[in-house]
Write a structure and sequence with these properties.
This protein is an alpha/beta fold and about 350 residues long. The protein is built from 13 helices and eleven strands. It folds into two domains: about 170 residues, Rossmann fold; about 180 residues, Dehydroquinate synthase-like - alpha domain (Dehydroquinate synthase-like, alpha domain, Up-down Bundle). The structure holds nicotinamide-adenine-dinucleotide (NAD) and zinc ion.
């Protein structure tokens, strides 16, 4: 079992990571003075698998667990669903010390965190991520939020949890595609900060897709530390935190252009990573071998490296509308070498050449 400390200055909490770590959750709950009732938010896939197990831990620790199960999928991250949860919280008389628990993937984590950040102006919150993406990305860093019909993640807050519990045994029930999507982000952490991690992923890619517990603990630990490091230095996305957007500028555009249907987030990020590598290559920050190396790694993880069903014009328009564009200028996170990135604006013709490359 590992405990990774996340310290954002005004708050310090642990990410507890390991296999069969529910005793740790029980001890944590016993040590806290939350109100009796805790609200577990989960979805229709996850709650039947782990809801009972988690509820038992709460009972053993002396709490009364309530639950609210939302329909699995991105559509749960909306104001209507949030409103149902507020209604439940108010009718159950939850108070300022009632704990909100996110049991699920990034959708449940973002939604539950948003509820926690707004209900009674903020109640305590813990995350129990059950997807690889949530374990390595969304559960760490404190971004919570919901979607608006006009765009994703437009309504939200920065709200740090009291703790995060990642039990890798929960990942075994994940469909293969959900495992892969986590690897889009994991490869990103290697490229932005740690070449050895890239080599480790290359050496272990065959075992990775089998969900070997020890390898998973290592990979998640590295990823959580990488994200926590950045978030600790820059919680609210000044300059440094933007390096976490590596691969996301083109990635988001690909997701949007394919109506969030053809590619899931990690798959689109994989394609975006290739585009960013190509821009690095065109600008002579890196060379073609680096691009190929990353493409091969992504391929070995069964991730796509080219986009289908998109056009250059569509990708360009989507990038210009991205909420991270400032005054219409797009900043790219680019590799300086594998393991190090810089942030630059890039001429349109260079972007276009890279986009052409990934839609071929
Ligand atoms: N807050 C952040 O910093 C941040 C970062 C990245 C992504 N996100 C958000 O995260 C969301 C995507 O998260 P996700 O990929 O985890 O999607 P998700 O929560 O929809 O989970 C993917 C699917 O896997 C199912 N599932 C979850 N755990 C399972 C398990 N253990 N076994 C079997 N099935 C399981 C879910 O029911 C769902 O169908 C997006 O809404 C995205 O905006 C947030
Ligand atoms: Zn991402």
């Amino acid at each position: 079992m590992e405990k990774i400390s996340v310290d954002v200055g005004y708050k310090n909490y642990y990410v507890v990571l390991g296999s069969n770590i529910l005793d740790e959750l029980e001890n944590f709950l016993k040590g806290k003075k939350y109100s009796d009732k805790a609200l577990i938010i989960s979805d229709t896939n996850v709650f039947p698998l782990y809801g009972e197990k988690i509820s038992e831990v709460f009972k053993k620790a002396g709490y009364t667990p309530l639950n609210h199960v939302v329909q699995a999928g991105e559509s749960a991250k909306c104001l209507d669903v949030a409103n149902d949860i507020y209604t439940k919280a108010i009718s159950e008389k939850l108070d300022r010390k009632s704990l909100i628990v996110a049991l699920g993937g990034g959708v449940v984590g973002d939604l539950a965190g948003f509820i926690a950040s707004t209900f009674l102006r903020g109640v305590p919150f813990i995350q129990i991520p059950t997807t690889l993406l949530a374990a390595v990305d969304s559960s760490v860093g404190g971004k919570v939020g919901i979607n608006h019909p006009l765009g994703k993640n437009l309504i939200g807050a920065f709200y740090q949890p009291d703790a995060v519990f990642i039990d890798v045994t929960f990942l075994k029930s994940l469909p293969e595609r959900e495992v892969r999507t986590g690897f889009g982000e994991i490869v990103k952490y290697g490229i932005i900060g740690d070449e050895n991690f890239v080599s480790y992923l290359e050496a272990n890619s065959a075992k990775i897709l089998d969900i070997d517990e020890d390898i998973y603990i290592k990979i998640i630990s590295k990823s959580v530390r990488a994200k926590a490091d950045v978030v600790m230095k820059d919680e609210k996305e000044g300059d440094l935190r933007r390096i976490l957007n590596f691969g996301h500028t083109v990635g988001h555009a690909v997701e949007k252009e394919t109506n969030f249907k053809k590619y899931n987030h990690g798959e689109a990020v994989a394609i975006g990573i290739v585009a960013a590598m190509k821009i690095g290559e065109i600008l002579k920050l890196t060379d073609s071998e680096d691009t190929l190396r990353i493409e091969n790694l992504l391929k070995s993880l069964n991730l796509p490296i080219r986009a289908e069903g998109v056009t250059i014009e569509g990708i360009n328009a989507a990038m210009k509308n991205d909420k991270k564009a400032i005054n219409g200028k797009i900043y790219f996170v680019l590799p300086n070498k594998i393991g190090r990135v810089i942030i630059e604006t890039v001429e349109d013709n260079v972007v276009e050449e890279a986009v052409k490359y990934i839609i071929n």
